[in-house]
Amino acid sequence: MKSLYGKFLVITALLMFGSTLIAFVTMNAFYQYYLKDNHVRKNIDRVERVAHYIEEEQPSNLDDYLTTAASTGYKIIILAPDGTRTDYGDSFRVDNLPERAKETIANEKIYNGMGEFPTNTFMTGFFADESRNTIGAPFIYQGKTYGIFMRPDIRALFTEVHYLLGGMILIIAVLSFLVIVLVTKQLIRPLTQLMHVTKKVGASEVTKEELPTERQDEIGELSKSFLAMIERLEQNELARKQFMSDVSHDFQSPLSSIKGYAKLLASDQWSKEEREKYAQTIANESNRLSNLTKQLLDLTAYDQQVDLHHVRSFSLDEQIHEVVRTYTWQLMEKGLSLSTDLEPIEMEGDPSALMKVWDNVLSNALKYTEVGEISITTKLEGEHVIVRFKDTGIGLTEEEQALAFDRFYRADPSRTKGINGTGLGLPIIEQIIRLHGGTVELISEKDVGTEVKITLPQFLSVR
Q1: What are phi and psi of 269, to 5 degrees?
Q2: Quick one: pLDDT band at residue 261, thresholds 50, 70, 90?
Q3: What is the Cα–Cα distance from 18 to 205, expressed in whole angstroms?
Q4: Cβ(102)–Cβ(79) under 8 Å?
Q5: pLDDT(208) > 50
Q6: Are residues 251 and 424 in contact, defined by beta-carbon separation less than 8 angstroms?
Q7: How confident is the model over 131-154, as a mean pLDDT?
Q8: Which of 18, 95, 246, 429 would be 408's cystine partner, CB 3.0–4.6 Å?
Q9: Helices marked H in 58-159 — which ranges?
Q10: Contact yes or no for 138/146 (Cβ under 8 A)
Q11: Residue from 1, 132, 38, 143 nearest 81 by CA
């Protein structure tokens, strides 16, 4: 049974059957160990009273008396002194009165067939319709010793009230099962809808109206979560397509340049200076491709990371000084001044990853600053480290700031004076800072400058 609906119905039916069986076995055990003795004593008392009445009253028509007694809900066997037997009431389902019972009566003792009836898990002695499951007693009638064996007639004891109760229980059970069937169907229906929607996700045929999001229960919450997942998948698909388009474009441009200039170099009509210029262009485009490939690999690696791999304690100020020393010659070449105000700070993190952050930020500041200065400050505020990079470069407009962390986004080329970035630097920075549990903020004004503010936990335990 593969269907959840079918499984639920089968489980419900098994539970009802199992609970009924357990209830029967439990009540049977309860009868055997707690009620049986009392039931036997009551029946012994009844048989003795009937026998005593016959002995005392000596009814003129014993047959009529016993017929009347049997009609009150009993099965009666009378054994005469000559061994003949007379039955009153309905016959027993199993007639197996043992010879021992007759011998007990002959010895003027009580025959306790009910008390001696073997315990049976699935049938109590109370219901066993067998002649051996009786109570027997001797009595004297007209000078002769007879034996009387009696037991209640279960069918006769079941009155209209019992049938009403039994019918009521049966109706309750049937109606309960039908209600469970209908309710289960209603509960399973939205799950079936979700299953159909799931199948349609791959075919992009899903609409919001197909999901039961209006429900105010767990199914509604599941539908809302599923809808949010679908929307996220759609966004991811769009982002993936845009990413592939951007990657293709960014690879195609330098490849086209390399191909074109390589053809020019193959011709002998160009002077040595022109050929050198073309070769330099090919080298630049090759470097651009190399940088793009490296940054794509870095971005992919950080996208897939859920935690940091190489965490240790290190000196933040020393690390930033090391990055500054790397770019000293470029600062001197552009005639820019650089000031630092670095507090001595020991912190936890991935040093190699954070080195890429400082390198990217300082590289961008140098790239987009022609005159003025660059400043770097670090400060410990409580349990967090604040790192600021400020420059007096071309800055960003509000629209450019909003898109700055989008992958492959580059500012207006007319403002960047032909600077060819990959558009992956800031996204890489953002991913690394996110893995460290920090935040990065871009504050910029067109033609005034840009500030990159990075906030990191000093110790990763406070993330």
Answers
A1: -80, -10
A2: confident
A3: 45
A4: yes
A5: yes
A6: no
A7: 90
A8: 246
A9: 62-71, 99-106, 113-116, 154-157
A10: yes
A11: 143
CA distance from start to end of the chain: 49
Q: What tokens were used for 379?
A: 């400060």
Lookup: tokens for 139: 């009595």
The pTM for the full model equals 0.47
- Using CA atoms, how far apart are residues 262 and 216, in angstroms rounded to an integer? 66
89, 87, 85, 53: which is closest to 71 by C-alpha?
89
What are the two backbone dihedrals, phi and then psi, of residue 2, each rounded to the nearest 5 degrees?
-90, -30
- Residue type for 444, please? S
Q: Which of 282, 235, 249, 258 is nearest to 423 (CA)?
A: 249
Crossing angle of the two packed helices 351-367 and 425-435, in degrees rounded to 10: 150
Task: Map residue 420 onto helix, strand or coil.
Answer: coil
Question: How many CA atoms, within 13 angstroms, populate the side-chain half-sphere of residue 254?
Answer: 20
CA distance 46 to 66: 13
For residue range 343-362, list pLDDT tens digits in order: 999 999 989 889 889 988 99
Closest of 328, 410, 338, 349 to residue 377, by C-alpha: 338
Share of the chain residues as helix, strand and coil, in percent rounded to the nearest 5: 55, 15, 25
Question: 174-195 burial, b for 16+ CB within 10 Å, e for fewer?
Answer: eeeeeebeeebeeebebeebbe
pLDDT band for position 332 (cuts 50, 70, 90): confident
Torsions phi, psi for 445 (to 5 deg): -140, 135
pLDDT at 341: 93
**pLDDT per residue over 116-126, tens digit each?**
887 665 556 66
